[in-house]
Amino acid sequence: MSVEGDLDAAVALMSVRGSWERPLRQVTSTALTHCLSAHPEALIVDLSDLDDRPCSSATTWLAAQQSAAALQPLVQLALCIPPDLPLADRMQHLGTRGHLPVYARLRQARVAIAGRLPLDERKTLTLEPEPESPSLARNLIGEACLAWELPELLHPARLVISELVTNAVEHARTAITVSVSRRAAGIHLTVSDGAATLPRMRKPVRPRPGRPLDERGRGLRLVTASADAWGALPTSTGKVVWATLQPSTGPR
Hints:
The protein has helices at about 20-35, 60-70, 85-100, 105-115, 135-145, 155-170, 220-225, and strands spanning about 1-5, 10-15, 20, 40-45, 50, 75-80, 100-105, 120-125, 175-185, 185-195, 230-235, 240-245. It is α/β, with parallel strands linked by helices. The strands form three sheets. It has a five-stranded mixed sheet with strand order 1-2-4-6-7. Strands 8-9-10-12-11 form a five-stranded antiparallel sheet, covered by helices on one side. A two-stranded parallel ribbon has the order 3-5. Helix 1 (about 20-35) runs parallel beside helix 2, helix 5 (about 135-145) runs antiparallel to helix 6 (about 155-170) and helix 6 packs antiparallel against helix 7. The longest helix has 19 residues, at about 155-170.
């Protein structure tokens, strides 16, 4: 089982392979929860190599569709199942009632999903791993927040994107793609680069007398404090790190 995002985390691809038995069921359920928590605009589940002759996985995909539809905004969910598999007929029948599309090939699913993405509410910028890149990314986010009349998110979003781009400049040292898109009343930020290593939170180091302060991991702690949620997904060329910010409805 593998999970991969595209360069702006708008579409996540989950590929499930093997026999549909308890270990794979558990891993898949955890991965589905993780993918939906990233709140992509769409999730494609490729079941081309899933061995499930009794079609017992059908309830898992229907439950995932219900979870995706309950999000605000909803996440588009689609399945990729070759027509010669018994699961294809089963999901074609069940998915019609739950608005869960089933495609024969992965390319068909990608094209159909791409045609439904709201591209008019997304701004993207490609940057080099240079010292001025965090500033340019902050400008993009500032322009988006003002254009979409989200002044409350202006400063926290600029802080988050600055830390994510700084990490990419320092650690990936590849070309960087920054994206900001509308998500319900808030925004979704992504930073993709060409390094495969996913970021992880470091435990803060206790200050020691006479030693300089170790600030490694400070950036991600700021992201955690400022964003409603954040995470990372591998991509075909590296990784994408995402963060979601929503206007506050009360004390955070």
